[in-house]
Amino acid sequence: MSLISLTWIFCAQIFLHYSLEISAEVPALIVFGDSSVDAGNNNNLSTIAKSNFEPYGRDFQGGRPTGRFSNGRIPTDFISETFGLKPVVPAYLDSAYSIKDFATGVCFASAGSGYDNATSNVLSVIPLWKQLEYFKEYQAKLRAYLGKSKANTVLHEALYVMSLGTNDFLENYYTIPGRSSQFTIEEYQNFLVGISEHFIRSLYILGARKLDLTGVPPMGCLPLERATNIMAGSSCREEYNRISRDFNGKLQVLIEKLNRTLPRMRIAYGNAYETVLQVVQRPLSYGFENAGAGCCATGMFEMGYMCNQRNPFTCTDATKYVFWDAFHPTEKMNKIIADHIVNNNLMVF
Ligand SMILES: *[C@@H]1O[C@H](CO)[C@@H](O)[C@H](O)[C@H]1NC(C)=O
Ligand SMILES: *[C@@H]1O[C@H](CO)[C@@H](O)[C@H](O)[C@H]1NC(C)=O
Ligand SMILES: *[C@@H]1O[C@H](CO)[C@@H](O)[C@H](O)[C@H]1NC(C)=O
To answer: Is-catalytic flag, 202?
Structure first.
């Protein structure tokens, strides 16, 4: 082979390498939150908020339970894939992965967590402030791996996703004493929004410029809440849906404010509420047969350890169900949520 053609191949390879790494508009997905986006960080914690056993993950690659609270992938996995990144976003605490994998996507989320420290304390999971500490540690590793300048570009161009809040209401405020004697529900929402603002400002200082702040779903339509609404025919609990709307409204006001005050920061509101409500109200038109109960076990109250292999009632085809367990969507529903958020809210990135 001539020197010229060798040189050409060499250059072409460099070019290919270069364009693959630099041309991506979103070079990495960086995730904070609760079980809606946890990819398995809780697996190593002493908590009951786990799902790294069957039948969780039975429709995941290899039928593997990963600690995702679903039968398969979760919304952030689909969002990552849509942006041309990996089809699964690895959990930061999963020792099977290293900074090489995390360079294009990393998940710090922890099932059972919330904005409020008191929420993550309920099940001894990773509080939001600790997720941020892990992120700082990650930044140092990324700079060591990619070099400072390239790492900073990735941190600037990455899409950050926050998805949490449901547990602050359902696992904390309405379940255990404490916050409800301290705050009215309106005051508590403002308290959470204040934490959200503080967190986003911290992310901004650390280099984030593109953020999806996901609102809470219609909490009253989660099977667990419907099951306790027997007097009303197990329909969605409107009081909880109203709290979801109020809280999401406050998040949107926060977004407008931060969008005005943080130069070059772009924040999109991820509207999970509308998507889930539409599907729950018209499941058939999305190809679902059941929107009121989860696939796992009786579908009315089981999640985590109660959704296990010994339960004879678990459905055989999760694609017919909106919810996988009493609290978390199926993979099919997670893809619908992700697609709606990407198409309606994240196109700007
Ligand atoms: C997770 O557990 C493994 C095996 O017990 C251990 O080697 C690893 O250090 C743990 N990781 C964390 C973050 O606790
Ligand atoms: C949550 O806990 C952390 C660590 O103790 C603390 O720094 C932070 O101020 C707490 N957040 C709130 C809102 O109290
Ligand atoms: C953010 O501000 C820009 C103008 O600076 C505006 O075009 C955009 O719609 C705003 N986004 C939100 C979510 O408020």
So the answer is: no
What is the pTM assigned to this prediction? 0.91
Q: How far apart are CA 100 and CA 84, in angstroms?
A: 17
Which atom of ligand 3 lies at the shortest distance from residue 259's CA?
Answer: 1
261 lines ligand 3 (CB under 6 A): no
Cα separation, 270 vs 215, in Å, equals 6
User: Is cis: bond before 283, omega within 30 of 0?
Assistant: no
Q: What is the mean pLDDT of each run of 10 residues along the chain (349 residues)?
A: 46 42 74 98 97 98 97 98 97 98 98 98 97 98 98 98 98 96 98 98 98 98 94 93 98 97 97 98 98 96 94 96 98 98 92
Cβ-based neighbour number of residue 47 at 10 Å: 18
Phi (first) and psi of residue 60, to 5 degrees? -75, 165
Å from CA of 135 to ligand 1 middle? 18
Question: From atom 8 of ligand 2, which residue's Cα is the shortest distance away?
Answer: 129
Query: Which one of the ligands is nearest to 67 CA?
Result: 1
Report DSSP letters for 199-260, one per residue.
HHHHHHHTT--EEEEE----GGGSHHHHHT-GGGTT---HHHHHHHHHHHHHHHHHHHHHHH
Q: Which residues line ligand 1 (CB under 6 A)?
A: 44, 93, 95
For residue 278, the model assigns a pLDDT of 98
- Dihedral sign for Cα 78, 139, 13, 349, please: positive
Q: Are 270 and 214 in contact (CB under 8 A)?
A: yes
Four-way CATH pick for 26-273: 3.40.50, 2.40.170, 1.10.490, 1.10.1740: 3.40.50
**How high is the mean pLDDT of the chain?**
93
Token duo for residue 285: 């038109």
Which residue's alpha carbon is nearest to atom 12 within ligand 3? 256
Residue 101 appears among annotated catalytic residues: no
